[in-house]
Amino acid sequence: MPKAKGANKRKKFNYSTNRRKLKTKAVKAAAPRIECAQLRNAWNEKKSVAQNLAEMGLAFDPNKALPVLRKKAAAMEIETSEASGTLVKKPYVVDSLVAEASLPEKKTHSISRDMIEYVQYMIKHHRDNYKEMAKDEKNYYQDTPKQIRRKVELYRRYHPQEYEAFMQSLKQQKMELS
């Protein structure tokens, strides 16, 4: 049987490369990136995952942190298990995580600018007549009256101030025309 093409090529040692640097570079590249900024700043590469998390006051194994209590367990056994805890060297990590979690969540609900313009056009020309909106030539997607009503309600729900301002401007235009 024939050998592979490069099988009998002699192996050469490259003296110009620093093997230690190559190894540390490979280890860093293989390690996953920690997304959480608080954990990344407090992380020590020389310690294990369990040791790092214990120093921060976090649990590596949730089953050991909060064990399932048996019905037969006495009250004294529960108190002694709670008293035995590890020393938290980096409490600021947990504090910053709690502070970040307590911040109010931003409302990201929105609709596209095109949809807003479409709805405003329909309301401007047809007011609340959804059947006429469905027959309009700007109804490119051939929405049914119910679909158009849903789009108007979405616009009203997600952008209430803008909707109110738009309706006020329509009333002003109507008063000026009269």
UniProtKB/TrEMBL annotation:
<keyword id="KW-0539">Nucleus</keyword>
<comment type="similarity">
    <text>Belongs to the NOP16 family.</text>
</comment>
<dbReference type="Pfam" id="PF09420">
    <property type="entry name" value="Nop16"/>
</dbReference>
<dbReference type="InterPro" id="IPR019002">
    <property type="entry name" value="Ribosome_biogenesis_Nop16"/>
</dbReference>
<protein>
    <recommendedName>
        <fullName>Nucleolar protein 16</fullName>
    </recommendedName>
</protein>
